[in-house]
Amino acid sequence: MTQEPELVPPLPENYSSMVLLVDDQIMVCEAVRRALVNELDIAFHFCTDPLKAMTVADEVRPTVILQDLVMPGMDGLNLVREYRKNSSTQAVPVIVLSSKEDPTTKGEAFKAGANDYLVKLPDRIELIARIRYHTRAYLDHVQRDAAYRALRESQRQLISANLELERLTRIDGLTGLGNRRYFDEYLGAEWKRALRAQTPLSLLMIDADNFKRYNDAYGHMAGDDVLKQIAHAIQSGAGRSTDLAARYGGEEFVVVLVDASLAQASAIAERLVQGVRDLKISHGTGHVTISVGVAKTVPTENETPHDLVKAADLALFRAKSGGRDRVVVDGV
């Protein structure tokens, strides 16, 4: 088998076209080389073994492939199809070289994925013109593709940043729970859903007992740490995916319970109270505790979410008035 020479001539420093000729006839390769030798914007490489064409194409990264149709060991049209399957050559223009002007062969070549068709050996001026035309088209495609990928990446980053910003506007910075704004939005949305479906909606209003005394005794940094621990206990205790735990303000928290009966809501509230007890955070002669007010309703047209908040808040007031560290259920 004929050994392929090195690149001939040496690569120009600022070439814009890289032509890969795949043809088993050295005479044809030499003729094309001579036709392009004085074109400083065109680099040239050839491959005489069609079985190595894909490997050579991956190495030299052509902007145009000149492809013979009839070669030993490989159908030229099958090789064109292989180019179209390979990611590195999928978009590279392929100019098919044939020994005859035949409409059927042309049709098959274009169907296989060829971009152009020339009868060899083509006129030098026409060959150069077609190489430059297809190179410009290919480079424009590459640039558009790169610009599109950059645009998509920029859009992805922007969407990600916007989602993160939206998340931050709904999260309480200290505890990581939902903030008051998110609670209002969530309760409003779930209220409408429950109104349509006529399903129960429950609310827990939670307050850290004697928290001002804790802050006065241990300082605000210690107080913030306690709020974080309480928030974690609340989040863990109200673990259903449809439930929302949020910081209502200061040392107050809320939990929205979707499709929960009064008994279920009461049981979750008791679990939260016990969860804070289990933290065993020292506070004076005892430990930090919470009080919880529980309210439940099946929304009607005559009610608003504020009515549910008011009922839970009243139950919380009764829990604190009754000695704290306890759960009180609205109406019970």
List the helices and strands and how they pair.
Layout: E1 17-22, H1 26-36, E2 42-47, H2 53-60, E3 64-68, E4 70-71, E5 74-75, H3 76-85, E6 94-98, H4 103-112, E7 116-119, H5 124-170, H6 180-197, E8 201-208, H7 211-218, H8 220-237, E9 244-249, E10 252-258, H9 262-277, E11 282-283, E12 286-287, E13 290-297, H10 305-321, E14 327-329
Parallel strand pairs: 1-2, 1-3, 3-6, 6-7, 13-14
Antiparallel strand pairs: 4-5, 8-10, 8-13, 9-10, 11-12
Terminal CA distance: 97 Å
Task: Please count the helical segments.
Answer: 10
Give a short account of the largest sheet.
Answer: 5 strands, parallel
- What is the structural class? alpha/beta
Q: What is the molecular shape? A: rod-shaped
Instruction: Determine the strand fraction and express it as a percent band.
Output: 15-25%
> What is the helix fraction of residues, given as a range?
40-55%
How many β-strands, per DSSP?
Answer: 14
Q: Mean pLDDT, nearest integer?
A: 87
Q: Low-confidence parts, pLDDT < 50 over ≥5 residues?
A: 1-13
Order of helices and strands: EHEHEEEHEHEHHEHHEEHEEEHE
Strands of the biggest beta sheet: in what spatial order? 2-1-3-6-7
